[in-house]
Amino acid sequence: MSEACSGIDVLIAASTGGRHVYLPALRSVPGIAQVTRIDDVAGLPRYAEVIKPDLVIASLDGVPSEWLRLLHRLRDPRLIQCDIIAVVRSVDQTLTKSFERLDVQPCVASATDTSAVVQAVTSVLRRRVPGEIPQPGQEGVPPTERVVANALKRVDTPLSADEVAARCGFSTVTVRRYLERLVNRGTVAVGLHYRAVGRPARLYRWITRTCM
User: Fold this and answer.
1) 182-194, pLDDT tens digit by residue?
2) How far from 168 is each of 8, 70, 101, 126, 144, CA to CA, in Å?
3) How far is Cα 73 from Cα 68, in angstroms, rounded to an integer?
4) Verdict on whether the full-model pTM lies above 0.70
5) In a domain, 135, yes or no
């Protein structure tokens, strides 16, 4: 079932049927165009493939290893690479690292804590560059990738993944993944900067004027 507003498309799923207490609060968040809600968390990858949301909110219960298997499936490169918020009751250091590797934003909240979920969604919305609309043929480019690409396009000098991350507000792990994807696509060039000590730094430079 979908709820219409104005902005990004959100897919929200709860692991216990019918628990969508976050929906009323999400309707009031500026920047959300549509919320599609499902009761089938296990089927999230299938729904994401069809709906192609900008943001997935997964309210997760049960065994953490099952969450991670699900999130790995959502991060299948054959699916659109949207932002993901995992709403959980608690998180430890191991889970935090797993979420970071998967580029998933954890949100620790109770079953009725709508404010924490709204805050997490708002933080995702703030990462987006207002007014930068994909050009024809670029509609399928993930929003995070557009932000990373735009950070490079705005400068004339090569940047490291750390520098791009600082400009975008993402983790370096997330930024590096998207930078390497842009390199493979041929829109970004990468070179090595050798330092006096340590490993050489990879520096990225935008090499095409094609808008994203």
Assistant:
1) 888 888 999 988 8
2) 18, 27, 18, 10, 9
3) 9
4) no
5) no
